[in-house]
Write a structure and sequence with these properties.
Strand order of the largest sheet of chain C: 2-1-3-4-5
Number of helices of chain C: 6
Number of helices of chain A: 14
CATH topology of chain C: Rossmann fold
Helix content of chain C: 25-40%
CATH architecture of chain A: Orthogonal Bundle
Distance between the termini of chain A: 55 Å
Largest sheet of chain A: 3 strands, antiparallel
Shape of chain A: globular
Shape of chain C: elongated
Oligomer: heterotrimer
CATH topology of chain A: Cytochrome-c3 Hydrogenase, chain B
Strand content of chain C: 5-15%
Largest interface: A-B, 38 and 35 residues
Radius of gyration of chain A: 21 Å
Radius of gyration of chain C: 19 Å
Number of domains of chain C: 1
Strand order of the largest sheet of chain A: 1-2-3
Distance between the termini of chain C: 18 Å
CATH class of chain C: Alpha Beta
């Protein structure tokens, strides 16, 4: 049989694509279905947030931090508030701290639901995506009663939170948590240990511990490779030291440690831990009294550079503030987990099929505004 | 080990000159001359007592009096220590050696710093724009950046001019 | 002949006869199946996704998301448009077959919104496309998007394709 001459095909997985999580683009060079080279192209949502920060005062910048990670906006708000308070010497009242923890963990549950749901939707199972959205709508309602917005909350203020919990909110939270844990078990029965899922996600795109640290991965991506590091325990802030919870790591139950299945399973375990934290914080909130916001009219940071990290849904979110003693910052840099996760895709995507590339992007939980800011 | 012990270890290896300790800041760090940054990074990563395995962040800044600074933040899981490093260059000669050979995550961070601030990283495998379009002119995060009138036919004027930062 | 002049004819015909114009039937069919391209750019995209979800169901109006512009009638620009993306969005619009409509959702697509100060943001999508319906909000609630698509349906029902206005 004569040899057929083949060539590599250049394929564009464009900015508008049903299974990329936002506007990101990949240029693939494939040999049939197997990828030889994958070059990511970002910047389609670069909204110049860091330049805008140099013209606004510290408390005016809070709505922009919402838009850095819009799926879990309260965590981004909290990072900015902690960064300014730690070096500006501003105290937060106790009731404000408990409300911060509860709302941050509720939003983390909502974000992990979107991650897990869209992961399953990309694999072809469309119905569990709607199950996840149904649960997320309840968390949206709870947060909307608290702060007025469903998506870009702008709830945290420097020195506290903006509104107190209305009457009856704590009972609604408890009822949601009681209904949510059976829903997570239903997810497990339907998806996590499903044979098709195990074959699609197990042993795909294994990230070793050394690679994860070299490329700067954080959050569930790093913990899925076996490194037990969580900002809430190891570089702690607020009243998290008084909460008892565990930090799950990937164990390679259905393949190797650090594959896509581990990261999927890890997010479901983290949701269970968040439920545990919220229950403890609700009890402490009922006992705490007082105001929720220690308002300061003029906020100035002393001269110098500060880097503060908090744990958002996608990993450690770091705010690097350079100040010259005045009311406006000189430079603000936001370090996010999705930027590093994007940079490892080029290495992971060699020799896999295009359908596996979709699984990789979904399991790394990338959102476009965190990459581009 | 605290920052003073770390600085003594570094001084024993590299001698005087080029590396200073900034001890009176809220987050103490090191000010490094640009010739020493690659060797220092490799030393910090591979020494068994230190093991700074993760480059957490790399930021480019535009400071007054024509100084461009690159700020690195390294993290060591073993010591639980976050270490800032600063490398200063001038606007006339904005070249810094790349450390993407030591930590692969620096690759994209340095591309972003080149794109937005204009610091040139020598030895980088592929230094091109990452956030802005390929044919954009200027480095926006510099303090004296001036916008063009239009981009490919799309006007850039705002409805209310007080919204612009060129005050 | 209008329906009011011939009541006896209408009485004797079987119940399954309707007198109307072709335009009305065509517009009724077209407006109740407006399929949109799933092009979510930013935060409004999450509200678009949740509007197609279980609580506010866009499917009951006949609108389902399609993956490609060649199978859709409607382009919902949901989110901030940047200069880098503007060229691609125009390409997307040109790939849609006529009759095609554009909804500008959210304040970033209407006028640049929160990011008006930014150097890389197009100040409103009507700089490059012709918009039919503007939906304000940051982000608009799914009910607001529902109302916007309803307004588009009313607009489609008022179109005259066969009978021109001038004769």
């Amino acid at each position: 049989m004569a040899e057929v001459k083949t060539d590599l095909m250049t394929l564009n997985m464009g900015p508008v694509h049903p299974s990329t999580h936002g506007v990101i683009r990949f240029v693939l060079q494939t040999d049939g279905e197997i990828i030889h080279r994958c070059v990511p192209d970002i910047g389609y949502l670069h909204r110049s947030i860091e330049k805008i920060a140099e013209n606004l005062e510290y408390y005016q910048f809070m709505p922009f931090t919402d838009r850095v990670d819009y799926v879990a906006a309260i965590n981004a708000n909290l990072g900015w508030a902690v960064a300014v308070e730690r070096f500006g010497g501003i105290e937060v009242p106790e009731r404000g701290e408990w409300l911060r923890i509860i709302s941050a963990e509720l939003v983390r549950i909502g974000s992990h639901l979107v991650a897990v749901g869209s992961n399953s939707g990309d694999m072809g199972a469309v119905t569990p995506f709607l199950h996840a959205l149904r649960e997320r709508e309840v968390t949206n309602d709870l947060i909307e009663e608290l702060c007025g917005a469903r998506l870009t909350h702008n709830y945290i203020r420097i020195g506290g939170v903006s509104f107190d919990a209305p009457t009856g909110w704590i009972d609604k939270c408890k009822r949601f948590l009681d209904n949510f844990e059976p829903a997570l078990d239903e997810f497990d029965r339907l998806l996590t240990f499903n044979k098709i899922f195990r074959h699609r996600l197990g042993n795909v795109a294994v990230i070793t511990e050394r690679d994860a640290k070299d490329f700067g991965l954080v959050g569930p991506n790093l913990r899925g490779s076996g490194v037990r590091w969580d900002c809430r325990k190891d570089d702690t802030y607020g009243l998290y030291p008084e909460m008892k919870f565990e930090v799950p790591v990937g164990e390679g139950l259905m393949g190797t440690v650090g594959d896509c299945w581990d990261r999927f399973w890890l997010r479901i375990q983290e949701m269970r831990q968040s439920v545990h934290i919220i229950r403890q914080a609700l009890d402490r909130l009922e006992a705490a009294t007082g105001s929720v916001w220690n308002e300061k009219r003029v906020i100035k940071l002393p001269e110098g550079e500060y880097y503060v990290r908090t744990e958002s849904a996608r990993g450690e979110m770091g705010y690097y503030i350079v100040s010259d003693g005045g009311k406006l910052p000189v430079r603000v840099k936001i370090r996010t987990g999705s930027f590093s996760a994007m940079s490892i895709i080029e290495k992971l995507a060699r020799g896999v099929m295009i359908a596996d590339l979709v699984a990789i992007i979904a399991s790394l939980d990338i959102v476009a505004p965190e990459i581009d800011r | 080990m605290d920052i003073q012990g770390l600085f003594d270890l570094v001084k024993r290896e590299f001698g005087d000159g080029g590396i200073e300790l900034l001890a009176d800041r809220p987050q103490p760090g090191l000010q490094v001359a640009r010739e020493k940054i690659v060797d220092l990074s490799r030393f910090l990563k591979e020494t068994p007592e230190l093991r700074f395995e993760m480059l957490t962040s790399l930021a480019g800044l535009d400071l007054p009096e024509g100084v461009l600074r690159t700020s690195y933040h390294l993290y060591s899981f073993k010591l639980d220590l976050l270490l800032p490093l600063h490398v200063d260059v001038t606007r006339e000669d904005p070249k810094t050696p790349t450390i993407s050979g030591v930590w692969p995550s620096a690759d994209w961070y340095e591309r972003e710093s080149w794109d937005l601030v204009g610091i040139v990283y020598e030895g980088h495998p592929d230094l091109r724009r990452i956030m802005l379009p390929e044919d954009w002119e200027g480095h926006p995060l510099r303090k004296d950046f001036v916008e063009k009138e239009s981009y490919h036919g799309i006007p850039t004027q705002r409805e209310r001019e007080w919204l612009s930062w060129q005050k | 002949m209008s329906e009011r002049e011939l009541p006896s004819l209408v009485d004797t015909l079987p119940d399954a006869a309707i007198f109307t114009s072709i335009d009305k039937i065509m517009n009724m069919a077209r407006s109740n199946s407006v399929w949109y391209v799933l092009s979510a750019l930013a935060c409004c995209g999450i509200e678009l996704m949740q509007a197609g979800g279980p609580r506010t169901d866009l499917d009951r109006m006949g609108s389902i998301p399609r993956g490609t512009p060649r199978q859709s009638d409607l382009l919902i620009v949901a989110g901030t448009l940047t200069y880098k993306m503007a060229v691609r969005l125009k390409l997307l619009y040109e790939q849609m077959a006529e009759p095609r409509y554009v909804i500008s959702m959210g304040s970033c697509a209407n006028c640049g919104g929160l990011f008006n100060m930014g150097y890389s943001v197009v100040k409103g999508v009507d700089a490059i496309l012709q918009v039919d319906v503007y939906i304000p909000g940051c982000p608009p609630r799914p009910e607001a998007l529902f109302d916007g698509i309803h307004q588009l349906q009313l607009k489609i029902k008022a179109e005259r394709t066969l009978v021109r206005k001038d004769g």
